[in-house]
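Exercise: predict the fold of this chain.
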Amino acid sequence: MCGINGVTRKDKELVERMNRATAHRGPDGVGIYENDQITFGHNRLAIIDLSEKGAQPMHSADSSLVITYNGELYNYRELRRELTDYPFVSETDTEVILAAYTKWGIECLKRFNGIFAFALWDAKKKELVLARDPMGVKPLYYSVRAGTVFFSSEIKALLETGVARTLDREAFSRFMRITDVLGPNTMFKDVKKLPPAHYAIVKAGVVTLVQYWKLDHEYKEQQSAGAWHERIRSTLDAAVTRQLVSDRPVGVFLSGGIDSSAVLASVVRAQGSARTYTTRFEVAGSGGDENFNRDAVLAKQTASFFGAHHTEITVRHEDVIPLFEQSVWQLDEPSGSATALAQLAIARETVRDVAVVLGGDGGDELFGGYERYRLSRIMDLYQRLPRALRARFAAHPRFAKLNTPPGIARLALFHFTKQNDLDRVLAPAFRADHTAPFFAERFFSDPSVPSLEALMDADQQLLIDGTLLRTDKLSMAAGLEARVPLLDLEMIELAARIPSEQKLSMFTTKKLFKDAVRDRLPAYLFQEPKRGWSAPAGVWLEQPEMYAYAKEVLSQSYYAPTKELFDWDGIASVLEDHFNRVKPNRPLIWSLLSFQVWARRFGAIL
């Protein structure tokens, strides 16, 4: 894992500034390559082949290709065995990419199983190739101005290029509803995200995007539950084994849930021992910290069950505000997730022991772990009842929700901030919804896809700009590489072949996956209610110190350029209602706080 930077002109001084902006991503080395048409920069986090032979930017054997690369190819050893005619000089996966491109051209992307973002200069074709992995685990941003293309792993480096800091109003509208910034937009109008599973050909200042991989949702296999259990276990074990490859120590982020525990079980099967890490929250005046630390308790028990060396990182009350502001800076964009500050805290401590961690991200999206999937299935069945029968129950609010049609309306029910809440905090000119049409076109344009399948697919795509982005940015802020074995390419493709009715029922979420790993995990994990990894942000906002901080940030005097975006009296009312426990609204308040801190720190303008 590393940081990559570049520009389609000769400009070493600029790329050096970009490298400095992303230095946290690569504490083990820095490099520059330039010619009359391109300048590449690189911050190195050495994981495989720690020698100078792994330094970047790296040239191909005939010097016709140059690459700056961030990521890991988990199948690089298998690919290397196919590339016997290439004169390798290192043991890196970076050189395997150069060899694969030399032999197969851009089609090599279809052979890669890994997480990556890279830029490759092809001197023979006089073109730049930008590429991003299928699930978008590794970020890649770009900006085009006057025929010059700038790119980087992080937005803060692109700001070194002089890009305008103008707010993208559609991105802002979507953020206020979904609490993440959805690609290909960013919060800056002139900065874009390269979409996952895409490459871009850049030639003569023109960027041409091409999708090279797409998940097949149509092909389903009919197998018994027992057969699926075996395939899930074997595929998970293989994925974890692949992702343990490293010349530096590897650990596991462990929560109190099934997914990270299943990853830990596979790690122990592969190497016999493990280091595990989790967070604990210290909450002043909460009536007992244990109210908010059930996951920490379970993680400690599970680590003991597997004989792992376990470390618990405590987020103290006084850490919250500085960690919050630091996490906003590291993320490059606002986020409605309060777990961001815990992710930053745990990364800073974990990197003292290991350079790589495996986590449990993605299991719920792939295998049906969220309650909304079970409810969506109930909705589908309910809507098959005769209309006259359903009319009898229409007055009851719970039954009324069961009539929510599939597609964007159902996604909005489960995900979107309610419009009446937004009307309280947004100025009238900014209340228009740019989210529903965007989602309808992006996620629900194919009516042949079953409603539950479409909802799960939408969540998998939302994962990219939410959880996965936070995982990358906040781990790399500490120079720590995070891997996600449940989103290994083989796991993703396996999950797509399982019929959704086998993944979950009307009564049980993630049934197939849970049963597949049940014999490997302690029984108490299956007796716990479903909990997402969360931080006690609602309680933090009830503390006098945090409340005072929130009142300062959520005022029109905090940052003048955002003054016209909001109804400040409405925001004050929402904040006061939460503080006084009249109407809790932590997600909305946290999103507003994050946006305001981001806007001032990054100098956003309207």
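Check your answer against the key: The first strand starts at residue 2 and ends at 7.
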